[in-house]
Amino acid sequence: MTETAANLSANSKDAIVDALNQALAETTITTALAQNFHWNVKGMAFGSLHALFQQVYEDHFVAQDDLAERVRALGGHAEGHLSSMIKRSKVAEHDGHAKDTEMVEALAVAQETLAKTLADLGELAADRGDSLTEDLSIARGQVHEKFAWMLRAHLA
Ligand SMILES: [Fe+2]
């Protein structure tokens, strides 16, 4: 049965909010990763990678807001505390000192990690009957798999 925020149990809301905050943390760390690489990338592929990294962080910046505001719609606390985000994120920070191919690889891994986190969120939301969070997570997961493909294509 499909539920809305008004009808979900407190237990379901807590579980979904936590999973949304996980996705928010990883999206935020990946935003920083992409912007760091946008600034520091060098080499003959500079133009296309500089632009692609910008496409990633602009998308992710908007997604942070969508995920955080879904948390709030469910009555939860949107975790915007950076050190907490870094601690829980399965996407690691990067100092930005890397070759262009290493940057592409790190950002591809981040996209694959996010795709899995969003798929897990979607599965949880579906189990709890929260089709609106499920829809958001499916849409976000598809974007991350698309970026993973675009990044991996550089390494073929
Ligand atoms: Fe820029």
How would you characterize this protein structure?
The chain has 156 residues and is mostly helical. The protein has one domain: Ferritin, core subunit, four-helix bundle (Ferritin), CATH 1.20.1260.10. The chain has helices at 10-40, 46-73, 82-88, 100-127, 131-152. Helix 1 packs antiparallel against helix 2 and helix 4 runs antiparallel to helix 5 (131-152). It is elongated. The mean pLDDT is 97. Bound molecules: fe (ii) ion. Fe (ii) ion is lined by residues 38, 54.
Secondary structure elements and pairings:
Blueprint: H1 10-40, H2 46-73, H3 82-88, H4 100-127, H5 131-152
Helix pairs in contact: 1-2, 1-3, 1-4, 2-5, 4-5
The structure holds fe (ii) ion.
Fe (ii) ion binds at residues 38, 54.
Helix content percent band: over 70%
Number of strands: 0
Rounded average pLDDT: 97
**What is the level-2 CATH architecture name?**
Up-down Bundle
Strand content: under 5%
What radius of gyration results from the CA coordinates?
16 Å
Please give the largest β-sheet.
none
Describe the global form: elongated
Using the coordinates above, name the CATH class.
Mainly Alpha
